[in-house]
Structure to design on (305 residues):
């Protein structure tokens, strides 16, 4: 089934902010984030109310599901943006009307826990979605990051991704493939379920936070042993941060982990992708056809959709 892409946006698109996963932290300036979106030329409808949070979640499971469906049903909404990640999407994923979302042509934007929905959309409906910024941290910060904002605007206004960055070792590559992936824990979480996309000849991108290198290795080996990685043309690693090495690691760090994986997995592994739980964040269209070129350590990743 061919990939279906979100609709062309009007000059002043309407963004609906929803919280299908975690609640905002208590000290988050939500109004500043909403105003930042307005300042960028977007109309905004906010479905999240901090007083409605339940345990660690943005609201109860049913309320979060209703919120998401309400945003899809709203005739003025063009873009559905996640409030934040954390956890919670897995609890409501089986009840989400994926086909309704795909048929709406609306943009889904987010990363982290929100990737579970985006991967499910790709697997079940062949609908593309944008792995990119969320309200919390990306738009609620005191000073917005120009790179993140420029990437987001380029994606939604010009419908393209253009990235240049450096990898950690010299290699020569020039290939095209389906760009897919996101949060590594979410990718592995969906493996073996109906929500896991079966992509061949793809460019798999992955990121995560607070995962020790051995856990990153273990998750990638899980994908390798499941036969996923051999079907990919390249693996592109984004930001992996906020982990802590221990004395017993005895020299085993991220670089040592990469060395082992490259000796074990035949698929090329490229590092340095500016994506994930980081300040400067690319916007990547899940399901787009991308071109990846690497000359020495210089990487270029482009896609149009």
């Amino acid at each position: 089934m061919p990939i279906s892409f979100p609709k062309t946006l009007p000059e002043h698109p309407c963004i609906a902010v929803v919280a299908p996963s975690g609640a905002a932290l208590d000290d988050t300036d939500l109004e500043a984030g909403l105003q930042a979106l307005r300042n960028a030329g977007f109309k905004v409808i906010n479905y999240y109310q901090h007083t409605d949070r339940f345990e660690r979640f943005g609201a109860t499971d049913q309320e979060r599901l209703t919120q998401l469906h309400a945003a899809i049903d709203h005739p003025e909404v063009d873009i559905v943006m996640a409030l934040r990640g954390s956890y919670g999407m897995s609890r409501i994923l089986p009840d989400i009307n994926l086909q309704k979302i795909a048929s709406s042509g609306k943009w889904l934007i987010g990363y982290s826990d929100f990737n579970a929905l985006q991967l499910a959309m790709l697997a079940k409906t062949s609908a593309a979605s944008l792995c990119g910024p969320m309200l919390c941290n990306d738009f609620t910060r005191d000073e917005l990051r120009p790179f993140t904002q420029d990437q987001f605007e380029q994606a939604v206004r010009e419908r393209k991704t253009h990235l240049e960055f450096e990898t950690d070792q010299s290699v020569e590559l020039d290939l095209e493939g389906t760009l897919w992936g996101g949060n590594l824990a979410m990718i592995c979480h969906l493996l073996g379920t109906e929500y896991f996309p079966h992509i061949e000849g793809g460019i798999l991108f992955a990121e995560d936070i607070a995962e020790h290198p051995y856990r990153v290795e273990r998750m990638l080996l899980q994908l390798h042993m499941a036969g996923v990685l051999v079907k990919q043309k390249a693996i592109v690693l984004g930001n992996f941060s906020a982990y802590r090495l221990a004395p017993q690691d005895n020299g085993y760090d991220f670089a040592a982990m990469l060395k082992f994986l490259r000796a074990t997995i035949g698929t090329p592994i490229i590092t340095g992708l500016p994506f994930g739980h980081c300040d400067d964040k690319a916007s990547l269209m899940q399901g787009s056809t991308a071109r990846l070129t690497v000359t020495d350590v210089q990487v270029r990743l482009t896609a149009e959709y």
